[in-house]
């Protein structure tokens, strides 16, 4: 009888142990499932956020982000409405400016390259004091926006002057020293055929004449290729810098008003997905 009781006890203990192990295994399995579910949820969330970022930043193409000679500009401003200088500089980028301007284009890229070179010449320590700069720009959407945003100059403060005689360049002056630089593209850097196509489209738009979407596509593709090439070219090979001795900054704008020129084809259809996608 005692032997049979011991056998029964062992069987009971074995059964209880098996059940405990089974329950423990089930709990471990459930815990693993929970962890996998959390990881899958996090992965899906990250993928969604990544997709959202791609959609939000679709205005800025990869070829610009990866450009060889594109560097941030370090700038110094003031804190608060009472205007004490910042403790330290902050970086600004072409991407920031494209977001503010509304798009990346050949004019904005040209203005960035030109102004970056002039500002680095005026501030050789590499930190641009945007409270100490004034600029002469032509009255065009890209040029005026870049002149104001990159340098801190403003029309209403008399530090951003609009004068179409400066062409596709700028005059930049450091107020405290009076040192002034004229910056412009070297001859032949901007493709003559691209300039002619742009002018033809603008003239026909002004006359109310038809412009084929394929022509607009062709210009945009050419402008993107020019911009890509410019951002991958050493700046000293693309632009000229001229020191202006005894420069006297103008006291008013020669061309204060102009119609906005970068919306003339806003309702024009796109001729193909490939053409529009190339600019991304």
Topology:
Blueprint: H1 2-56, H2 62-65, E1 73-76, E2 78-79, E3 84-85, E4 90-92, H3 94-101, H4 106-122, E5 127-129, E6 133-137, H5 141-151, E7 160-162, E8 170-174, E9 180-185, H6 192-206, H7 213-231, H8 235-238, E10 239-244, H9 273-278
Parallel strand pairs: 1-5, 6-7
Antiparallel strand pairs: 1-4, 2-3, 6-8, 8-9, 9-10
Helix pairs in contact: 4-5, 4-7, 6-7
The oligomeric status of these chains comes to single chain
Structural class: alpha+beta
Tally of structural domains: 2
Number of strands: 10
Integer-rounded radius of gyration? 31 Å
Low-confidence stretches: 274-280
Main sheet strand line-up: 7-6-8-9-10
> What is the CA-CA span between the terminal residues?
88 Å
CATH topology of the largest domain: 60s Ribosomal Protein L30, Chain: A
- Secondary structure tally, helices: 9
Architecture per CATH nomenclature, i.e. the level-2 architecture of the largest domain: 2-Layer Sandwich
Structural account:
The protein has 280 residues and is an alpha+beta fold. It has two domains: 56 residues; 217 residues, 60s Ribosomal Protein L30, Chain: A, CATH 3.30.1330. Helix content is 50%, strand content 14%. The chain is built from nine helices and ten strands. The strands form three sheets. It has a five-stranded mixed β-sheet with strand order 7-6-8-9-10. A three-stranded mixed β-sheet has the order 4-1-5. Helix 4 runs parallel beside helix 5 and helix 6 runs antiparallel to helix 7. It is globular. The C terminus is likely disordered.
């Amino acid at each position: 009888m005692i032997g049979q009781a011991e056998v029964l006890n062992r069987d009971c203990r074995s059964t209880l142990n098996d059940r405990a192990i089974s329950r423990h295994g089930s709990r471990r399995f459930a815990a693993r499932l929970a962890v996998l579910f959390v990881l899958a949820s996090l992965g899906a969330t990250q993928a969604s956020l990544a997709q959202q970022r791609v959609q939000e930043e679709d205005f800025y193409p990869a070829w610009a982000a990866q450009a060889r000679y594109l560097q941030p500009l370090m700038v110094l401003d003031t804190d608060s409405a009472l205007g004490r200088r910042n403790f330290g500089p902050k970086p600004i980028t072409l991407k920031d400016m494209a977001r503010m301007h509304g798009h990346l284009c050949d004019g904005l890229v040209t203005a960035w390259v030109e102004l970056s070179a002039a500002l680095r010449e005026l501030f050789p320590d590499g930190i641009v004091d945007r409270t100490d700069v004034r600029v002469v720009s032509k009255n065009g959407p890209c040029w005026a926006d870049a002149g104001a945003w990159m340098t801190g100059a403003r029309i209403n403060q008399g530090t951003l002057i609009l004068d179409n005689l400066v062409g596709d360049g700028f005059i930049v002056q450091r107020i405290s020293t009076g040192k002034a630089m004229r910056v412009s593209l070297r001859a032949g850097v901007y493709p003559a055929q691209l300039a002619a196509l742009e002018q033809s489209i603008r003239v026909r738009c002004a006359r109310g004449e038809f412009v084929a979407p394929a022509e607009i596509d062709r210009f945009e593709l050419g402008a993107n290729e020019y911009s890509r090439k410019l951002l991958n070219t050493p700046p000293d090979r693309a632009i000229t810098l001229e020191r202006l001795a005894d420069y006297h900054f103008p006291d008013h704008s020669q061309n204060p008003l102009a119609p906005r020129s970068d919306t003339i084809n806003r309702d024009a259809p796109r001729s193909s997905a490939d053409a529009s996608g190339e600019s991304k």
